[in-house]
Every structure is written in C-alpha cells, then in structure tokens.
Request: fold
Amino acid sequence: MDLAAPYSELVERLRGIETLGSIGSLLGWDEQVNLPPGAAGQRARQQAAFAEVTHAAASARRLGELIAVLSDGSLEPGQRVVVAEARRDYERAVRLPADFVREKAAQESRGYHAWARARAEDDFQGYAPVLERNIELVRREAAYLGQENAAYDYMLDRHDPGLTAVTVDRLFGELKRDLVPLVREISASPIRARPGVLRGFPVEGQRAFLREVIERIGFDFGRGRIDVSLHPFCSGSGDDVRMTTRFRVDEPLDSLFSSVHETGHGLYEQGLPSSHRGTALGLHAGMAMHESQSRIWENQVGRSRGFWKCFGPRLRSLFPDQMQGVGSDELHLAVNEVSPTLIRVDADEVTYNLHIILRFEIEKRLFSRDLEPRDLPSAWREASRELLGLVPPNDRDGVLQDVHWSGGAFGYFPSYCLGNMIAAQLWERVCSLRPDIEEDFARGEFGWLLGWLRENVHRHGRRHDALTLVRMATGSELSPQPLIRYLRARYGALYLR
Reply:
C-alpha cells in the first residue's frame, strides 16, 4: 500500500493542530502581558472555548484512522517517530472528555489571576481552594488516562516523556549528596561581593543593554520579541517566539539573566527544523532539554569572564555613574555572587538546585496524599529551613512565589534541575572540543556554541528523548557529576582560594 498520501494528510492535520496550539499560546501570552484586569473572566471563557476547539481537532476520528493505517505500514525512521508521537497524543486526546478539557482550561486561566492576587496580598488561605481544585483536576486527568495511582509520574511524563519519579529521585539524591557540602563550604567563605555594588540602573538603559546582548548571542528579533510580565517566561514557536522579563532599578542583573535564560528557550525554538513544524521532528525533546538550553546560556555563558569581557565595556558606557569604581574582578564576583535566598528566580547558580529539590519533594508528598494543600505553608517553611537555612517571613516569599501550580503545572519543577545537569554535561563536552571557547565570547563570537547546539540538540527535534539525546551528544549517561565539577571549578576559584 502506498502510504505517501495518508502520511501527507496526517502531517497536514498535525500542522493544523499545531497552528491552533500557537493561537492558544498567544492568548496565554496576552493574558500575562496585556490583559486588562477586568477582562480576566472573559479570557477564562475564551481559553475554555478555544481548548474545546483544539481538543476536537486533536481527537478527530479521521486522525485516528490515518494513524491506524500508517502504524501498520512500512515507513522511514523519521516518519515512524512522527506517527508514534501522533498516536501517543491522539490516544490521550480521545480519552479526555471535551467538557473536562474546557473546564481545565478555564480553571488554568482563573488560577493565574487568583495566584497573582494572592501573591500581591500574601493570602494563601484565599488561594488554597484554587490549588486544591488544580490538584483534583490533575488527578482526574491521570485517571482518564488509566494512571489514577500514578498521577505524579503522569505529570512528569507530560513535561518530559518517559521520565518517572524514581529516575528523578536517583539523580536528585546523588546531586544533593554532593551539593549540600559544597554549598556549606562556599557559604563559610569570607569572600563576598560588596553589598549594593550594582544599584540605580534606569530601566530604559537596562532594556537597551539586554536587547543588544540577546541579539548578539543569536536571537532573531525578526521572529520574536521581548516584553514585560509579572513572571518571566517564553512561549510560541520558531516563527513567533514571545519572551518576557521584568525590571528592577536596583537589581539590573535580574532582568539581564532572566532575559538571557528566556533567550535560551527562544534559540531552541528558532533552531528546531521548521520544515517539520507540527510533527515530532519539529518539536523539542522535553522540558528538561528545553531548560538545559536556557541554563547553558544564562549560566555557563552569561556568568563567564569571556562574556563580560565582551559586554562589560558596553555596560560601563550605558551606566558610567553606576559603574564608576567597579572593577572587572568586582563585577565578576557580583555576577557570580553566592548567597542563599528565599526566592528561586533570584537564587545563585550554586544554591538554585536546592530550591528545585524542595519543590520536587513537596510535590511528591502532595500526590502521595502525605501532605494536604492547606498545610503547604508550614511544610514549605520547614523544607526551606532544612535545605536553604532560611525561613520565609510570609507566604509571598514562600509557597506563593512561583506561578506554576496556578496553572496545574505540577511535575515541571524537576525540569529545571535536570536542565542544569544536562547543561553542565553539554558544556563539559563543548569545552573538551573547544577549550578556548571563552575567548570566542570575549570577541563577541557566540556562533560556534550556537552551531554546536543546533547540530547536536536542536536539529533532532523529538526524534530521541532527552536522556538519549544527552548520551548521543556527550557520550555518557546523564549524571549530576559534571554539574558538581563545573560548580566546584567556577565557584571554588572565586570563593575557596
């Protein structure tokens, strides 16, 4: 049987579903960037209606017929990947009732606005019913898919196909074993960045600087943009990438590094094969791999001496008064300051992963029913005391600080830490191939690294899962040890000399 015609029809239908998804993504972007507060209820209805339309396309009978025909035929390897991923998505879609899809989409929209209000007013108890509802919806969704007793594994798999809590436990346990002593060593060092060394940076200057930086490292503004939101994020696909940041006059590095982080996501989306958009071959390999792309640019690149040899002079020219008396070594120490903080997005590179371990352990307790949502604040404070040595004075700086749970994105947090592991392992391989890569950065040349990532990560799409892709790119299974080696080398040189 000639499968060319049914395969072509399948691809067109998949591209149609992807187009609908991109419209939904724009609705979500607009909700966090432009939406007037009084329009929140209307946006929830819009999101619900649109989710129903998208679900109808994703569960259409004809799509199932095409997948069945193609599953029984002889296909090329890439086509088999497309069909297998399409079957996975279709089987999920047909088992979710349309009214449930509509209900969940509306709740995700309402949840975001409820979280924003609760965070502003430090009102966890007012938000708790929303959180309980979100968890209940996740459990229902897992039950529809026959995984009512493995809801957390189901959510991990949604973000990173094939990932389980057992795998995360193993990797995080090994990381925690070696990371906690390193954090203690560095925390005990008398070497510290001068308090308040970077203060009073006007927003317009910050905006100009970060745009120059992210364009120089390779982001195509002809296919993307950057705006402001309460919580930085990146959405969209290769032809229309929407990124956001936030600005603080007395914390200029916050906007810069959040922007470089989101640019890493954007570069990945812009590097996926456009000819395969809408299919698995044009889709990222999971959120851990996505986070690795953002973290490698934010940390391994953005906190390097080479990077600041390139961009330091421009920072000084834009902010001569603020940078007066700040030497290169002092700037480098400020960029790589290690100081435990309550806020994940403000955390330094060394302690950041402890924030993720905290959230992972709490999520496991929520889904094992060992922890009730209403008891989250006290559980959070205890975990923060144990892992970070800090206790939040309020819920705004504790359990309410992150947006993820407001939209039901449980199981996403591990992607950040896994992304850090992947980034370090990729970086170790990069440095073995190009030992003087920081000299490239000092000259403002970032193309070699971007090209290597394009070749070894981006071009594969979802042809392989993240763990397989790591092994192919680096020659080794994913391990926390490259991350420990990287942190000890960079921060040991600064704080343990």
